[in-house]
Design goal:
α7 links the parallel β9 and β10. The longest helix is centred in the C-terminal third of the chain and has 17 residues. This protein is of the alpha/beta class and about 240 residues long. About 30% of the residues lie in helices and about 20% in strands. The chain has a domain of about 160 residues: TIM Barrel, CATH 3.20.20. It is globular.
């Protein structure tokens, strides 16, 4: 559901999960404000957008993937038990679009916070968070999708949701950019919707592509006094699944 609190999810309070990693084989958050922090990832299946440049199409593109083969339904107690095998504090809940399942995420997040963990949601900025998620210990890494990412901005840019996230005081806005023209478009969105803080990340799935794009974007990002992030998991692990 775009622009409103979503209630999708598995039956009986279960979450539809594409993959989970970072416990058995440790890893880092690769992007944004927590780049380089040890992290555990829960990637939820399903999305409300269909970006051409998406690198996790197994969460939504049923023309290429069979949803019964690329997702499982997992209970909150099972996911919590899995996370608690690791001492790592940061739990990243990503997708797909995780807020489509936020009704069933609320009890998981509460238990994680009770156990001293902190939670980062990676969201596309089209779904308003449930008030129960706007609590201490929870942050939102909001990544609005530009037209250059292969998505109609009439669907991917939802002003009321962006404003709600900005006003929450718990969001950072991370934009993927492939050229300086993208930086100019980001500036328009930032000014129009009052978005802050702003992070820009070069698009790329190889170290060479990220380096090339980062060098093209760096001066334009620095001139606006925004934050600049790489994709650490690509540089360190060659974009391997589960890292």
């Amino acid at each position: 559901m775009t622009g409103t609190a979503a209630t999708a999810g598995g039956p009986g309070g279960r979450l539809i999960v594409a993959e989970r990693f970072g416990v058995e084989v440790p890893t880092f958050q690769g992007e944004g404000p927590s780049c380089g922090h040890p992290a555990i990832f829960i990637r939820l299946s399903r999305c409300n957008l269909t970006c051409e440049s998406c690198d996790t199409k197994e969460t939504w593109d049923w023309s290429q993937f069979n949803p019964t083969e690329v997702s499982t339904r997992e209970s909150v107690p099972d996911l919590l038990s899995w996370v608690l095998q690791s001492p790592v504090e940061l739990v990243v809940i990503t997708g797909g679009e995780p807020l489509l399942q936020q009704r069933n995420l609320v009890p998981l997040v509460r238990r994680l916070l009770d156990e001293g963990r902190r939670v980062e949601f990676e969201t596309n900025g089209t779904v308003v968070p449930d008030p129960a998620l706007l609590v201490d210990g929870v942050r939102f890494n909001v990544s609005p999708k530009l037209a250059s990412f292969g998505m109609d901005e009439a669907k991917s840019i939802v002003p009321p949701v962006l404003r709600a996230l900005a006003e929450s005081g718990q969001a950072a806005f991370k934009f993927v950019a492939s050229c300086v023209a993208d930086v100019d478009r980001i500036a328009e969105l930032v000014d129009r919707h009052g978005l802050a803080p702003v992070w820009v990340m070069p698009e790329g799935t190889t170290a060479e592509a990220i380096t090339t794009t980062a060098r093209e974007l760096a001066d334009a990002v620095a001139a606006r006094h925004w934050y600049f992030t790489t994709r650490l998991h690509v540089l360190a692990f060659a974009d391997a699944r589960g890292r």
